[in-house]
Structures are given as C-alpha cells and as structure tokens.
Amino acid sequence: MQPTHIEHIGIAVTSLDEAIPFFETLLGTKCYAIEEVTDQKVRTAFLRCGQTKIELLEPTCPESTIAAFIEKNNGRGGMHHIAFAVEGIENHLAEAKAAGIRLIDEKPRAGAEGLSIAFLHPKSTFGVLTELCENKNNK
Ligand code: ZN
Q1: CA 99 / ligand 1 centre spacing (Å)
Q2: How far is the CA of 32 from the centre of ligand 1 (A)?
Q3: For the stretch 51-82, what's the b/e string if a residue is b when 16 or more beta carbons lie within 10 angstroms of its beta carbon?
Q4: What separation in Å is there between the alpha carbon of 7 and the centre of ligand 1?
Q5: Per-residue confidence of the chain (139 residues) as pLDDT tens digits?
Q6: What distance in angstroms lies between residue 101's CA and the mean position of ligand 1's atoms?
Q7: Fewest C-beta atoms under 10 Å: which of 65, 76, 109, 116?
C-alpha cells in the first residue's frame, strides 16, 4: 500500500455549531462544506489545512456509531479516525486483506464529498480506526 497523503482526520463532536468556530479559529480558515451522510447517521463539516482536511462528525441520532464513540469518551468527542488518500482503493483493500489486516468494509462505499471509502478494523491498526479513500470524481 502506498497512500499519497493524509486526506483527512476525523474528529467526533457533540455539536458542529460549537466545534466549527473553534476549528475556524485554530486553522484560520472557514468551514467550506457541511454534509449529512445518512448512511453513517452523521453530519459532517470540513475545513482545510493544506492538503489535508479536518472532518468534524456530529451524530444525527443515538444509534450512530459516532454517538456510541462519544459516549465511550465520557460524553465528549475526540479523535475518531485517520483517512489516507489512495489511488485504486479496491487494490489497496485486496492488499490489506492479503496482509492479514481485518477489514470493516470489504468493498468501498460512498462517503462524504463523493469519495469512495473503506475502513480497516482498529484491532488490526494499533487501535487507530483507519480509512482509505479515493476521489474518483475528477477522473
Ligand atoms: Zn472520514
């Protein structure tokens, strides 16, 4: 596997309204997109930091995995996942599987911003939930 860069870092928050102003101050840039990903029961907000983005994740219902994550973190959010940009996500998944890495997603699915995404299991990635993503829009 050879990711091209860190595409984004996902941070779970209880409220986008509260978190966005802080990250706008921290990064000196405005949030450029807010999007609901119904599939994952989250609302996401994106800010840029160079080539990398910060993805804020707010649960839209108690059944959201982000809600469960926040609950485990004493009701506060925290760093949730790291996402690597790859080219040829299917090949990367096959390679990961062949290397004995446990996959959450055997096949890529649709994520925010129209990216193809797939998660690797934190049990195989030293406790860090790891996402692979590919932007197939501009190809
Ligand atoms: Zn993500």
Answers
A1: 23
A2: 16
A3: ebbbbbbbbbeeebebbebbeeeeeebeebbb
A4: 8
A5: 899 999 999 999 999 999 999 999 999 999 999 999 888 899 999 999 999 999 999 999 999 999 999 999 999 999 999 999 999 999 999 999 999 999 999 999 988 888 999 999 999 999 999 999 999 886 5
A6: 19
A7: 76
